[in-house]
Amino acid sequence: MKEYQVKGLTCANCARALEEQIQSLPYGEGATLSYSSGKLRVNERVDLEKVRAILATDGAYMADDEQSQRKRNPLLYLVGTSIFLFVMALLFERFIGNEVVIIYIIATALSGYKTFIKGLKNVVRFRFNMDTLMTIALIGAFGIGEWKEATVVAILFGINEYLEGIGMERARRSLDMLLKQVPKEALVIYNGQTRAVSVDSLQVGDVVLVRPGEKIPSDGVVIQGKSSVNEAAITGESMPIEKETGMSVYGGSVNNEGVLHVQITKQYKDSSLSKILHLVQEAQETKTPLELFIHRFAKYYTPFIMVISLFVMTIPPLAFGVPWHDALYQGLAVLIVGCPCALILSSPIALLAGMTRNAKKGVLVKGGVHLETLGRVRTIAFDKTGTITKGKPHVTDVIAYIDENELLRIAASLESVSSHPLARAIVQKAKQHDISYEQPEQIETRTGSGIEGKIDGKRYRIGNERMFDQQDLSEKIQKDAEKLKSEGRTIVFVADEQHVLGLFGIADEVREESQAVIKQLHRIGIRRTVMLTGDHEKTAEQVAKQVGVTDVFAQLVPEQKVEKIKQLMKDDIVAMVGDGMNDAPALAHAHVGIAMGKGTDSAIETADVVLMQDHLGKLPEAIAIARRVNRTIRFNIAVALALKAMALLLTIPGWLTLWIAILSDMGATIFVSVLSLLILWEKRTR
Predict the structure, then answer these.
(1) What integer pLDDT is reported at residue 373 of this predicted model?
(2) 618 and 540 in one domain?
(3) Both 127 and 224 in a single domain?
(4) Tens digit of pLDDT for each residue in 518-565?
(5) What pLDDT is recorded for position 576?
(6) Do 549 and 588 sit in the same domain of this protein?
(7) Are residues 610 and 548 in the same domain?
(8) 207/161 Cα distance (integer angstroms)
(9) How far is residue 666's CA from residue 108's CA, in Å, rounded to a whole number?
(10) Domain housing 241
(11) Under a CB-based contact definition with an 8 Å cutoff, are residues 253 and 216 in contact?
(12) What DSSP assignment string belongs to 554-578?
């Protein structure tokens, strides 16, 4: 299948009709045309000239067709000319006489000729959509001599069609702003020389030069230089991030002031920016259950309206003696009221706006169905390590039985030879207190328990409880150790040859934003927050208490996490948030899987929503946007149906006119389009 960008699509119904015509071509089976994204996918063997001809019947064209690109959609000019002719006919009707009908016909043809041609084809094929309804209405209006009103119907329908196209194009343009973040070239450093190459040709291991104001071409790591980098396009973070040697950077982010040498770690096609663009564009193609329902509803709704119209045209004259002219007029108005345009538009613009706004915030939603479900979530389960906590141990407690600085010096000296996460936490604690330490002598590592070594000619030990005999631990030491254990700490003992010198309590550091995020989630209506972790129960309970999580399930293997998710799903719509490979099964089973953007590839690939930041800060806002999208869609549907219902009720006393009919249809379409686009609008905070 080959993909093309199509411009000039006027409405969702029209796009679906064009899709069906393309599918009827040889090799056209399986072709898809998305109104939301303007993407056409067809078999490479299909006759493109015939495809172009089909698109042209609706004023649409392929964006790669240079000749077509120079053409502008003439609808606005045609409608403008129609309005001018209509006004002239009204002003000079008494001077022109019966010939004024010719002007009304010309004005109607300019605004409605495409609709009329498509509608006639639909009548022959027994295909009922809004073009069919409008064509029958126009023929009927002219047939009973309502020239003025027929012209107004055509003009207002043309305006409606134009505004509908503008609404979706505005939503698409907002998404296209993301494409402007894509860098085109990179300066590769080779043998001390720089040369410009295409971003697509970059290979893993290449070193690129990024000057101030330039975009980093692909994901990589800084190997030389220091600067602040604007990552807003990727993570949604407004503040620049300071980068120096050894730190990772995203492709598409902007280098602010310094010169950076960046070693590429991912080809552009695998970079974060490329994935963002791919996922968001791909997400536009998916249909939510609500959208599918609307399309099925519209399929049966249109013939139903035609039956109602026929009923209004025939039953009153036959049963109650209503003049045929009046009944035909009312029936034609019913046809116009019944246009499903606003109903079909109630969903796609809102979904596209919601996904685009989330993408700008650095939150990727992999489809409209996931956005809709995210808005209905009431229970959120979190993995602990790397999600609520940083996944990096740090020293929380120091209990010293000698001078504390001396204890830190001895402990850091012994641990400086180890790469164990607990050892690094103790060394980091010594650095924070500006305590110098030295390399120990005669190091002996005891697997699973600790390290022994000489410092200043004296032997010391550091490790866990297994390294010490019970008699080494006095009652006070045991009491201190038990207190730390009850608080969920991992304990490290430090001792010389005779005595224990002190204890370190170590725990995984809670992320700064976790408590605020959990509180905010509860505030916006998340009823239950759950922690699922493989860690010890005491440690998990301590973290849960600190951040405000309501329920804790500890010492779980990945399979048990999946079982807990399934249990939670029996009672509620559940989201699972995680970052590791062991979280992938739970992410896949939850109603919505949410992965941290700097987590493992397996978690990111499995998840339905990806937070590109290395924290949970954007999660409440992402849920709030999803809920707003759902509210907007429901409200759009209610308004569209209510306006039509009110207009139809006017047929009972005979008050429904063609003017009221088209204004109710046009008003509903404009209303749902504007309300959906407002999702993109964000209040500026000072």
Answers:
(1) 92
(2) yes
(3) no
(4) 999 999 999 999 999 877 788 888 889 999 999 999 888 778 889 999
(5) 95
(6) yes
(7) yes
(8) 51
(9) 17
(10) 203-266
(11) yes
(12) -S--HHHHHHHHHHHHTTS-EEEEE
pLDDT tens-digit readout, 582-623:
788 888 899 999 988 766 666 777 788 988 887 899 999 999
The CA-CA-CA angle for residues 147, 149, 154, to 5°, reads 95
pLDDT (0 to 100) of residue 70: 42
- Output the pTM of the full model: 0.69
User: How does residue 516 score in pLDDT terms, banded at 50, 70 and 90?
Assistant: very high
Highest mean pLDDT among 347-356, 534-543, 550-559, 567-576: 567-576
Residue range 468-488, pLDDT digits in tens: 776 678 889 989 998 888 887
* 276 within some domain: no
Residue 207 lies in a domain: yes
Report the DSSP pairing between strands 379-383 and 574-578: parallel
Q: Are residues 559 and 645 in the same domain?
A: no
The residues, any chain, with a CB within 8 Å of residue 547's CB and separated by 6 or more, are 388, 510, 514, 515, 518
| Same domain (yes/no): 503, 401 | yes
- Coil, strand, or helix at residue 663? helix
Tell me the C-alpha to C-alpha distance, in Å, between residue 110 and each of 107, 143, 162, 256. Answer: 5, 19, 14, 53
Q: Are residues 515 and 611 in the same domain?
A: yes
**Count: domains in the chain:** 5
Q: Which three-class secondary structure state does DSSP give residue 16?
A: helix
Contact 596, 387 (CB under 8 A): yes
Question: Domain boundary residue among 36, 53, 73?
Answer: 73
Distances (CA, A) of 87 to 91, 104, 148, 151: 6, 10, 10, 11
Q: What is the DSSP letter of 378?
A: -
Residue type, 191: N
Residues with catalytic function: 383
Distance CA 390, CA 393 (A): 8
The chain-wide mean pLDDT, for the chain, equals 82
Say how far apart CA 586 and CA 597 lie, in whole Å: 17
Provide the 10 A C-beta neighbour count for residue 287: 18
N- to C-terminal Cα separation, the chain: 48
185 is a domain residue = no
Helix (H), strand (E) counts: the chain: 24, 26
Shared-domain flag, residues 525 and 503: no
CATH number of the domain encompassing residue 211: 2.70.150.10
How much is the pLDDT for 71? 46
Length, in residues, of the chain = 686
What is the distance between the alpha carbons of residues 378 and 259, in angstroms, rounded to a whole number?
A: 47
Residue 634 is assigned to a structural domain of this protein: no
Place of tokens 């060394």: 427
Residue 59 is part of a domain; what is its CATH number?
Answer: 3.30.70.100
How many CB atoms lie under 10 A from the CB of residue 211? Answer: 12
If one compares 397 and 348, the residue with the highest pLDDT of the two is 397
The answer for residues whose C-beta is within 8 angstroms of residue 492's C-beta and 6 or more apart is 411, 422, 426, 450, 462, 463, 464, 503, 504, 506
Order of strands across the sheet with 260-264? 193-198, 185-190, 207-210, 260-264, 220-224, 248-249
